[in-house]
Amino acid sequence: MSRVIFREERCKGCLLCTLVCPTDNIEQSQRTNKQGYRIVQISNGDMSACKGCGFCAQICPDEALTVYRSKADRTSEDLAEEEHV
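Above: the chain sequence. Below: its structure as tokens.
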């Protein structure tokens, strides 16, 4: 299972990650960080819907997200590409 790690102290609540998530699995929470921004979270705390695409981490201007992709979620193209690197 892939997973997303949120660095809450870096999140500014811009919600760009919510716009690019293909599974709509990221949402704004009611919690705030030390700077007073409403941070994002995984919808319903269900990480199983995460495909590990990494779009959220790529678009985040503050590097507040890191995606760890499990081998089970990788496609055969991804695995072949890794072998050539």
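The domain at 3-84 is CATH 3.30.70.20 (Alpha-Beta Plaits).
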